Every structure is written in structure tokens, then in C-alpha cells.
Amino acid sequence: MNDEENICLACGICCDGTLIGFVEVEAAEFSRLKGVLEVEESDQIGFFLHPCEKFCEKCTIYDQRPKQCGLFECKVLKSYEKGEMDFKSATTIIESVIEKKIGIQNKLRALDLKLKSGSFCFKMMEVKNLFAAENTKIVRKEMHKELMFDIEELNGLVMKYFGVSYF
Ligand code: SF4
Ligand code: SF4
Q: Which residue's CA lies nearest to atom 7 of ligand 1?
């Protein structure tokens, strides 16, 4: 597959925190990844959080990336590789996720919510929990409702096409 046909090169949303919040690293890979990637180690398991520090429009350590990164194949990629989806359809789905994500980020900024999560996908769960807790104390504002609608809509999209869920 050449670069023009590689949808992952036009995507990267499984590295930048849009879909996934962390990657697990096997203990057997700890020494190989030393100096390549910052991995939190605990007993026999390691992980690193997204957005991945090695993602800069594409993976900058592609040949050395952890095993788990190479194993992840979203539904869009699988359909594309099987010939069930063409390049244009695949990139259109990816673009629609990115567009919805930007819309949600704009709403989050406008609401000035104090969120602790680093990655976009963990923020989605955090917002849902925050609003659920606040709902018992205050009447939800219209913008909160709109934001939750957008988050639920995006969650439906990523479940359908990428096989992941925020909640
Ligand atoms: S595996 Fe899927 S989500 Fe990840 S970069 Fe490729 S197309 Fe995008
Ligand atoms: S190491 Fe590369 S493939 Fe793995 S999450 Fe980071 S940028 Fe993505």
C-alpha cells in the first residue's frame, strides 16, 4: 500500500486522544522502548497516555512503535482493507469525526468547564459524569444539553465506525 492509499496516514485519531485514552505496553517491551517513548511502568504492565507524545501528524516512531499500536485496527480500516469501503468514504467518515470533535471542543471552551482529563476521549466521560452529578443540584443550561447531544452523537459515530465507546 503506498502513502496515498494509506488511510491511517490521513487519520491518526487513534493516536491523538480522540478515540483512545491510553496504550498498554507489555513488560517484554520495556527495555526496547527505553529512550524511544515515555512509558509508566507498574509491575508487569506499562502504559502511556494520549495524546501520544510521538504523534505529530503521523507516528514519528513508526518502526519502533509498541506492539499494541500495530495491533489496533478500527472498523473503518478493516472495511477499507477488505475492499468494502473506498478511500473517499473512509476519509469522509474520519473527517466527520474530526469536525464533530472540533465542535465539541469549541463548546467546552465556551462553557469554560474545569476538566482534569488530558485526552479528548476521557474528557467525554468526565463531562458526562460532571453533568450527571450537577443535574441533581442545578437545572441544566441549554448549552449543557446541546453539548451532551453532540457528545452522544459522536459516541454513536465512533462506536459504529471505529468500534470504541467513550462511556
Ligand atoms: S486504525 Fe483507524 S483510527 Fe487509527 S489511524 Fe487507522 S484509520 Fe485512523
Ligand atoms: S507510538 Fe505511534 S502508533 Fe503508537 S500511539 Fe504513539 S503515535 Fe500512535
A: 8
21-39 residue pLDDT tens: 999 999 999 999 999 999 9
Whether residue 46 is contained in a domain is answered as: no
Q: Which ligand 2 atom sits closest to the C-alpha of 52?
A: 6
Is 112 within the bounds of a domain? Answer: yes
Ligand 2: residue of 55, 63, 74 to mutate (most ligand atoms within 8 A of CB) is 55
Nearest ligand to residue 69 Cα = 2
- Could you list the residue range(s) of the whole structural domain that residue 98 is in? 75-167
How many Å apart are CA 12 and CA 104, to the nearest integer? 18
Distance 84 CA to ligand 2 centre (A): 26
Q: In the chain, how many domains are there?
A: 1
**Residue 97 in contact with ligand 1 by CB distance below 6 A:** no
Number of C-beta neighbours around residue 147 at 10 A: 23
Write out pLDDT tens, residues 61-112. 999 999 999 999 999 999 999 999 999 999 999 999 999 999 999 999 998 8
**Structure-block grid coordinates of residue 127:** 463531562
Residue 17 lies in a domain: no
Assess if residue 22 is contained within a domain: no
**Residue among 137, 126, 133 nearest 166 (CA):** 126
